[in-house]
Amino acid sequence: MMNRGTILRGIGGFYTVLDDEGRSYTLRAQGKIRKERLTPLVGDEVEFAPGEDGEDGWLTAIRPRRNAFVRPAVANIDEIVIVAAAASPKADPLLIDRMLIAAQKAGVAACVCVTKTDLDGEAAESLLRQYAGAGVFEARTCVRTGEGVETLKDHLCGKTHAFTGQSGAGKSSLINALYGFELETGGVSRKIERGKHTTRRCELIPVEGGGRVLDTPGFSLLETELIEPRLLEEQYAEFRPYAGQCRFVPCYHITEPDCAVLRALRDGKIAPERYERYRELLNEMKERWKNRYD
Description:
- The chain is of the alpha/beta class and 294 residues long.
- The chain has seven helices and 13 strands.
- It has a six-stranded mixed β-sheet with strand order 8-7-6-9-13-12, with helices on both faces. It has a five-stranded mixed barrel with strand order 1-2-3-5-4. The chain has a two-stranded antiparallel ribbon with strand order 10-11.
- The longest helix is centred in the last third of the chain and has 19 residues, at 272-290.
- It is globular, with a radius of gyration of 21 Å.
- Mean pLDDT is 89; it is low at 186-199.
């Protein structure tokens, strides 16, 4: 019978796998996995053959995934925590929106977590207010003061969860505060206001009380998977209460008369900042859809 386990990390073609009894193995992927054009991801549930006499074993199969992400490169998670700083580095809401779309398409719950709230509490509130109707768990945290740390920890208890977001936003520091780890942390370059990369690889870490946490490398760019423009609205929880109420179907919610979404926007039921970024992504999808066969 083939052994089964979960990939904790991968470095240079070698994968550390933890089996159900808590034993870890160092494995290499068999050629058939590469022929199937599969790349093992942290979080993958796999089958493997342990090595003998001190030799590395072989990862023989990747079991069907519940979900998978490109950035961060992880699989089989329950929730993704998108971290943004209240100040330094400046938050990129469009990047958050792109991550939320990726989570929505993967069927994964999402949390928008604003860190460093002691630096600019007003900016933190402004950012979180934009996601009030987005169907996410909103977290306001500060490692220095402890604000929101226990609330977030309780919310994530028992889940396999990945922290992601811009470099320097405070992901590793927050994980350290949540779970008592000593992950390497870094600051922000004053010259360019960009976070320093301290986490260099994805790593799945079991945590006390159940569940597992993934610390992942930060990034500043993310391309959204191509979506047929008329279907982009399905990725916005704010629009769902108004489904079927527009005069025209499909409705892009831009200039159409008797549009229920535009009416909700005017009534203050949809954050204008989120809506403007929706328009930006819609234009992007229209252009890419038009050129999809080029």
